[in-house]
Structure formats: structure tokens, C-alpha cells
Specification:
alpha/beta; Rossmann fold; 2 domains; six-stranded parallel β-sheet
């Protein structure tokens, strides 16, 4: 595409640390790409905020990423993908991708009995974004949403495999088991980190769809189609991955290093509200 460099970084943003599961998949599947990640740790969570507020936050972050001369923006937050992506896309002349459509597309394709569950924040469930897109692809599908608000703090406290997480997961997931879904979308970027627990409770007969993985795949296709894939290996010592947050960089860095294992050397705190509306 005219004016966009292949070796420019990919911008990735999330309400906090959950989007690191998306960044991790991009690192795995697109090892030659540079990444600028922004986590809005001062204003997390987005899942209990209004559409207008989430859109305003997303616009500020997108404008910050533009200052880093990114070639595309990945909205690695389900709530922001559901509420803000369509509007921001109209304002920014760059390719953008969210996490909802790639996950919904795969779920619509793999279900056998047409019963698909979505676990996510309340805002993502209320937006009906997964349901609407699944039904575009598979009109016969029945989509059942379940908000699981306690999963995020459990993950952020590091309780990935713990009896309390098992207990909460059993309570949340029991009604989805009772209605006989055969496909479950992990509709919040934190949830892949407790995939093992969710999979054990749901059983082998339920396919788990990880939108983080599917988004990285869709991003690769998008970059290939636009001839924006970086084919050159990144030189050793280059600052390939940059991380910015709106609060508490040390806490973010510690969590990020436990998730990504690529050695995140630094995270810089910036005042995101200084980005013009």
C-alpha cells in the first residue's frame, strides 16, 4: 500500500494485560514483525464502561499508535473490538483488525450442532457482536452468551490453576454445559490463560475457539493481501517489541514476562489522555 512501509511496526492495544495473549500469538506466527503494544492499565477494565467511553479511549490510543508510525492496528480487546472498531476504522486510514470477527468466523465454521457459547465481559455480551457476526456466517446457529467477570482478576492474580478458579469456572460454565453447546469462544483476551481449566470443565466434546490465535492468523492473511508482510529478519539487538502503559509499568512488565517469555526488558508509562480527541 502506498506510503506504508513493510518494516513498520504492528500496533496492538488492549485495556490492560489481556491483549498480551494476542501479542504472543503475533510473535509466534509473524516472527519478523515489530510490535508496539499499548495497555491501558490506568483505566482497565473496559468491560463495565459505556460504548462512548470505550470509543473515546480507543481513539486516544489509536492516535498514540499513529505517532509510532505503525502499519496496521490490532484491537486486542474484545470490548473495544465490539464497541469502537467500526468507528475508529472510519477515522484512521490504516488497515485495522479486531478480535471478534476472526473468532466468530471460526466458531460458525466448526460447530456441528449449531450451539455456540461465548464467555466474555458483560459489555461484550451486551453488544451482541459475536452473536451478530456468527449468525451472518451461520444463520441457523444458536449463540448463548455468559459474562464471567471474575475470570479477569483471577488471571491477573496469577491463579491460573487453583481450586478457587476451578470453583468459579464450574459455576459460570454449568449452564452452557446444560444446554449442550459444542463450541465455546473464549471471548476475552485473558481467558486463554485459563484454557486448560475451561477445557477440562467443558469436556472433550466442546471445541474451544481462541480469538487471540485466530486474530494472528487473520492478521497474517491481511498483511499478505496488502503486500505489507515484513520478510526481512529483525537484527539482533533491535528493539523489536516496545510496550507502553498508562499506569504501573513495573507490574505490567512482571505480568508480561510471565506470559510472553520473550524477555520484555522495559515498559514505559505515558499519559494517554494527552492524545488529542
Amino acid at each position: 500500500m502506498d506510503g506504508i512501509r513493510k518494516n513498520a511496526p504492528i500496533g496492538v492495544f488492549d485495556s490492560g494485560v489481556g491483549g498480551l495473549t494476542v501479542a504472543r500469538e503475533i510473535m509466534r506466527q509473524l516472527p519478523n514483525e515489530r510490535i508496539v503494544y499499548f495497555g491501558d492499565t490506568a483505566r482497565v477494565p473496559y468491560g463495565n464502561k459505556s460504548k462512548d467511553t470505550v470509543t473515546r479511549y480507543s481513539r486516544q490510543i489509536a492516535r498514540f499508535l499513529l505517532t509510532k508510525e505503525v502499519k496496521t492496528i490490532v484491537v486486542a480487546c474484545n470490548t473495544a473490538s465490539a464497541y469502537a472498531l467500526d468507528e475508529i476504522e472510519k477515522e484512521i486510514h490504516l488497515p485495522m483488525i479486531g478480535v471478534v470477527k476472526p473468532g466468530a468466523k471460526v466458531a460458525a465454521e466448526v460447530t456441528k450442532n449449531g450451539k455456540i457459547g461465548v464467555i466474555a465481559t458483560q459489555a461484550t455480551i451486551d453488544s451482541n457482536s459475536y452473536s451478530d457476526y456468527i449468525k451472518q456466517k451461520n444463520p441457523q446457529a444458536t449463540v448463548l452468551g455468559k459474562a464471567c467477570p471474575l475470570f479477569v482478576p483471577l488471571v491477573e492474580e496469577g491463579l491460573l490453576e487453583d481450586p478457587v478458579t476451578d470453583e468459579i469456572a464450574m459455576r459460570y460454565l454449568s449452564e452452557l454445559i446444560d444446554v449442550g453447546i459444542d463450541t465455546l469462544i473464549l471471548g476475552c483476551t485473558h481467558y486463554p490463560l485459563i484454557r486448560k481449566t475451561i477445557g477440562r470443565i467443558m469436556g472433550d466434546g466442546v471445541t474451544l475457539v481462541n480469538p487471540a490465535y485466530e486474530t494472528a492468523r487473520a492478521l497474517k492473511r491481511q498483511l499478505e493481501e496488502r503486500n505489507l508482510l515484513n520478510e526481512e529478519k529483525i537484527d539482533l539487538g533491535t528493539n523489536q517489541y516496545q510496550f507502553f502503559v498508562s499506569d504501573d509499568a513495573d507490574k505490567f512488565k512482571n505480568f508480561a514476562n510471565s506470559i510472553i517469555r520473550y524477555g520484555i526488558l522495559s515498559a514505559k508509562t505515558i499519559n494517554i489522555e494527552e492524545q488529542n480527541e
